[in-house]
């Protein structure tokens, strides 16, 4: 499998490639991600040394949460999004310090006489930087 740039476009290209896999191959990818989230990310994205360093320093509780949630979304081919500025400087912090990573799971359900029951979930990773004030 190819390595992709760690940006929004690269993330969507990886997701497209993953979602085109046969079910069994996609399940293997999801299992690998669940077993070692950090290695899976490093194996699938072109990370700079500072990005790799940051990945290694992320609190294990966050990694565990990501490794628990993400595989189910992969297996179901549900929407997963990465929101990330192109660079820390673009977000107002030239040194990239104070980076914030959020993981949001959204679940929506609706019902109508015409359409019946509809259930949709999405997962969003957001990377942001504080704005210097």
- Overall geometry: globular
Sketch the major β-sheet.
Answer: 3 strands, mixed
Secondary-structure element series: EHHHEHHEEE
**Topology, number of strands:** 5
Outline of the structure:
This protein is of the alpha/beta class and 133 residues long. The protein has five helices and five strands; from the N terminus they run E-H-H-H-E-H-H-E-E-E. 10% of the residues are buried.
Describe the structure.
This protein is of the alpha/beta class and about 130 residues long. The protein has helices spanning about 10-20, 25-35, 35-45, 50-55, 60-75; strands at about 5, 45, 80-85, 100-110, 115-130. The chain has one domain. It has five helices and five strands; from the N terminus they run E-H-H-H-E-H-H-E-E-E. The strands form two sheets. It has a three-stranded mixed sheet with strand order 3-5-4. Strands 1-2 form a two-stranded parallel ribbon. Helix 2 runs antiparallel to helix 5 (about 60-75). Residues about 90-95 have low confidence and may be disordered.
Question: Topology of this structure?
Answer:
Layout: E1 4-5, H1 8-19, H2 23-35, H3 37-44, E2 45-46, H4 49-57, H5 60-75, E3 80-83, E4 100-112, E5 116-128
Parallel strand pairs: 1-2, 3-5
Antiparallel strand pairs: 4-5
Could you name the key traits of this structure?
single chain, 133 residues, alpha/beta, two-stranded parallel sheet, 5 helices, 44% helix
């Amino acid at each position: 499998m190819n390595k992709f740039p760690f940006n929004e476009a690269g993330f969507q290209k990886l997701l497209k490639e993953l979602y085109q896999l046969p079910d069994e191959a996609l399940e293997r990818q999801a299992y690998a991600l669940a077993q070692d989230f950090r290695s899976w990310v490093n194996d699938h994205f072109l990370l700079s040394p500072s990005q790799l360093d940051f990945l290694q320093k992320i609190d294990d509780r966050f990694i565990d949460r990501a490794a628990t949630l993400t595989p189910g979304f992969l297996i179901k081919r549900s929407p997963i999004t990465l929101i990330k500025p192109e660079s820390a400087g673009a977000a107002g912090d030239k040194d990239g310090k104070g980076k914030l990573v959020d993981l949001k799971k959204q679940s929506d359900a609706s019902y109508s006489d015409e359409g019946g029951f509809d259930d949709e979930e999405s997962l969003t990773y957001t990377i942001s930087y504080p704005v210097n004030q």
